[in-house]
Amino acid sequence: MTQKTPTQKKSFCVMGDAYGVIVAAKELEIEKERHFDLPFQVPDVGRALKNVLKTREVREFVSGALAGAMTKAVLAPLETIRTRMVVGVGSRNIAGSFMEVIEQQGWQGLWTGNGVNMLRIIPTQAIELGTFECVTRAVASAQEDLRQNGSPKLEIGKFSIDLSFPWVSPVAVGGAAAGFFSTLACHPLEVLKDRLTVSPEAYPSVPVALSKMYGEGGIGALYAGIGPTLIGMLPYSTCYYFMYETLKNSYCRAMKKKSLSRSDMLLVGAVSGLTASTISFPLEVARKRLMVGSLQGKCPVNMAAALSEIVRQEGLGGLYRGWGASSLKVMPSSGITWMFYEAWKEILLIDRHIR
């Protein structure tokens, strides 16, 4: 017993040590293999991006951006003349203003600020048209759901108010939302474009304009006149989209058509733009005066003061100064924009069966 015990202990210890080393080595090998064989999937960014680009909303935004860029490239000279006349710079008639620009800056002067204008219009039209489509569908869908499921009602004495708001036009709500969000996002580019157009001597380039504006008023200078701009944009945008959809649907019913032809789109878009511009033009004049007032050393306190100043100095006709030039710009711009937008939607949506 005395001899066996040490032998057993020695054999046990040796075997135990050897076994332990072998096990340790195998465990390390297994852990090493497990470490490299762990399943890890790299995110497929390209596929995710393609899926996003296939959505209806993104394609509508892209259609709006392309339509805006193509329209502005064609109509930049009219935009330059319109801006000069609205803010009271140079001649009071279209032909005179046109000749002044050519004499002072050459033909290229008609495209002054067009680079900034293109940078402005691409995101503006993308946000505006995309937002209009999305909000209009959302409001129409919400109203339909409420009608089918029974809309809630607010009882006030003998009066009952239908909270589904059936009298609210989804198109009008979509138009207002389109104008609000596009203006809020792209207003700094509008301010910059106006500075380059109205005073090219003081603001010869984009970097110089940005530097001077920041030095004069900081970040707030880029949002100069944002309040009046929103006030002026909301009635214009609401009326513009409401008129377009109303005229389009009425014309299709009267002519027994399913959709508008390209020439029909030009006509309907032009009439819609002219109507909306005429209704909101006094607010547009006051807005422009506020935005560039600092360039002339005098800036009204607010929109009401600007309107009062215009009437006092120029009479009621002053509220529509530049309306002719504006109409020449707005009508083709609206018509061409809708024509290009509907065409791009057909290419990007209908051909791919996106409804």
UniProtKB/TrEMBL annotation:
InterPro entries xrefs: MCP, MCP_dom_sf, MCP_transmembrane
Keywords from the named record: Membrane, Repeat, Transmembrane, Transmembrane helix, Transport
Subcellular location per the Swiss-Prot or TrEMBL entry: Membrane
A GO CC term assigned to this protein in UniProt: membrane
Residues that span the membrane, as ranges: 221-244, 265-283
Biological processes annotated in GO: transmembrane transport
Entry membrane topology: Multi-pass membrane protein
Signal sequence interval, chain numbering: none
Solcar repeats: 55-138, 166-250, 260-347
The UniProt record lists the keyword Membrane: yes
Family of the protein in this entry: Belongs to the mitochondrial carrier (TC 2.A.29) family.
Protein name (Swiss-Prot/TrEMBL): Mitochondrial adenine nucleotide transporter BTL1
Organism: Stephania cephalantha
